[in-house]
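> @MW can you paste both from yesterday?
MW: sure, first one:
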Amino acid sequence: MHWDGHAGLTLIIFSILLAAFGYNLNVLFLLAIALVVSFVPDFDLDSKYFDHRGRSHSGGVAIIVGLVFGSVMFYVKGLTWGLLGFFGGFGGYLSHLLGDLFTYRKFPILWPFTNKEISLGMFKSEDYNGVFWWGGWICFIICFLATKGILQSLISNLQ
């Protein structure tokens, strides 16, 4: 997937998960971290030193990224922000891996537990980026409106 597909998938996943908490500053901060971190695994695209979709595309690295973000935020703002940093970093990284898992190219997503490379082989990385991008924004807007009670008000006014 490309950057827009990864951003859209992250919006879909986090909008649905966070709708249960309602949207507030903490939730929007968590979503922002996840969106930024969802681009991080592709740092190796033009690298001479790292293979794209090598170990950088693994759950082990997702945990490390979550711990780094969580530690920095804990140091700066305390426990609540530390947890937001961890879940934003870990979840954003994991959403990127999930997006790549749908494509044909295999990678070691379960490293360090196993080096076996897997993929679901459902589509090419360039095929559904626009669908995920627009789907993510639609999902975010619907979840935001629903948690604020605006969607229910609009629906009741239509009846």
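MW: second:
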Amino acid sequence: MLSSVVFLTSSVFAQENEERSLGWSLHIDVRLRSEYLSDSFRIVAPATDQLKFSRTVVGARYQASDWSVEVEVQDSRAWGAEALSPIGTDDINTLEPIVAKLAKQWSLTEGSELDLSLGRMTLDYGSRRLLARNNFRNTSNAFQGAHLSYVSPSARAAVFYTLPLQRRPDGLDLESLRDKEIRLDKAGSGERFWGASIDYAVPQADATLATYVFVSALNDEPGRPVADRELATLGARFLWADGALDAEFEAAYQWGESLASIFSTPDEVLDHRAWFTHLHLGFELWPEFNFRLAYDQATGDRDPFDGRNERFDRLYGARAFELGPSGIFGAAVHSNIRAPAVRARWQSSESQAWLLSHRWLSLDSPRDFFVTGGRRDSSGASGRKIGGQWELRWRWTPKDTSFVVDLGGAYLKKGEYFSGAPGALLNPAAPKDSQYIFTQVSWSY
């Protein structure tokens, strides 16, 4: 159970409670994906969009008895973008060393271990909702700094201090980004991220308890305008499984100061108070078939004129594993949202897996932004209902090969929000339902 919530410096070489192989090891992963989207929900978007993506990861590590050196280079590219395509650093980052670190391990008593990592790294924590190495997204969050973890048979504790890597070129130099120019990502002092966590397994109850605190600071730097923030996020997570039943509850509270936008001045700083929660209950109705009821909520800003900001900041988390495919779709995100859901996952054969889900999407605050759509009705008159989102995925893992084939799609049946929200006239396709399809092939060595 503990393996589902551990905090580690993540890489393709990550091993949990396993004896390490000494000497050199090599990993290669290649992924190709095609995405199609029609009638986007965004305020600015082409009527139809079709893009091709590639992601190649090459990594090498040398492991000695109690220390290791690791380097991992990721190359992410995209083709076919139109002038209004929602493409950016989430999609393109060419020849970037996302991992370049030195690690030292100390074996302690009773199977416990202390691990220190220094350098560039990727990070995963727990549910991955607030801190993750991205899987579906074409580029990955990466950090530069130090990470110290303690692991025992029943618990894990960790502390870290990092400077998040700013992917270059960024959206301010869109021509260079789309031309896939090679520039080394930058760890600037204007963006800092640190925190600590404790995870504890309770074997007699088949449960895991976890708590964490993350602190994020983001400030303007020359050539990089941002909405400044100084935020602390305190959260807790509970997981339980007993035979055919499983449950998870996670909640986090966020406080500090933030600016409403990049156009705000320093004297317009807002008091920041926000929260998010996730709850689900799963049932194994028969072997290899799991049915889940779930609810996600992340607060939005209730009043744009009251001097406070209640919009939850999702930090460096992932969403595609839970809220639907991201890429050029990505209607749902852990910010200003309410999203009850039903989901079914099953294995139709040894090599084939399926997922079918439906989410009812609405705004937590109708006066705040629909974040991924770039729309806001400050009066709240357009209502909350974003619509109903269907998702279907199929994965085929051919036996005795290193290939994985994924096919999937999403359908957003738009709600009343799109008939009255500002921006509908700028995007004539907005009232029509959004349709998204992706095909993907990956190979690893």
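> thanks! The longest strand covers residues 270-286.
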